[in-house]
Amino acid sequence: MKSFVKYGIALGLMASATGIAYAQMKPEAAIRARQSIMRVMSLNFGPVAGMAQGKIAFNKDVFATNALRLESVWAMNVAAFFPAGSDKPVAGSKIAEFTRAKPEIWSQPDKFKQAQDTMTEAVGKLAAAVKSGDEGAMKAAAGGVGKACKGCHDDFQAKP
């Protein structure tokens, strides 16, 4: 029992430290992190969307691998990488010299959280469909992910 309490305390301290780390993240690091997560999401969703739309041949193994990778990457909580102060490019930065994040992310936090929650739900449905092995369900769930991506980007990402 004592070790259970010790582990619980340690876990609580780690969770608190993680929250503090996000809150203290430098804007450049936040921009780099969220851009990296979104890039990996895009690289993995592209083939999934192509297969779901019939633009490329359906390959269940590739679809499943990419879809489950989306679930893992999305679990990194991309919303945590939008701290205050990361709304502007970082001058002189090699990686974070641009950001297309709209001010609405910070001025409408509830709406932004809802968009993140919608994406989390859509990614979860995609993972469940993959685990079911039903090709039709997989393709339909991919459409839900695409709609969630588009909805968030329409509201919170500036056009290039």
List the helices and strands and how they pair.
Elements: H1 2-23, H2 27-52, H3 60-74, H4 104-107, H5 109-132, H6 135-156
In brief:
This protein is mostly helical and 160 residues long. It contains 6 helices and no strands. Mean pLDDT is 87; it is low at 1-21.
Structure description:
The protein is mainly alpha-helical and 160 residues long. It has one domain (26-156): Cytochrome c/b562 (Four Helix Bundle (Hemerythrin (Met), subunit A), Up-down Bundle). It is 71% helix and 0% strand. The chain contains six helices and no strands. The termini are far apart. Residues 1-21 have low confidence and may be disordered.
Distance, first to last CA: 56 Å
Number of helices: 6
CATH architecture tag: Up-down Bundle
Name given to the CATH homologous superfamily: Cytochrome c/b562
Q: Roughly what fraction of the amino acids lie in strands?
A: under 5%
Residue windows where pLDDT falls under 50 for at least 5 positions: 1-21
State the share of residues found in helices, binned by percent: over 70%
Taken in chain order, the helices and strands follow as HHHHHH
Would you report the number of β strands? 0
What would you report as the Rg, rounded to the nearest angstrom? 18 Å
How many domains? The number is 1
Question: Key terms for this structure?
Answer:
Four Helix Bundle (Hemerythrin (Met), subunit A); single chain; 71% helix; mainly alpha; 160 residues
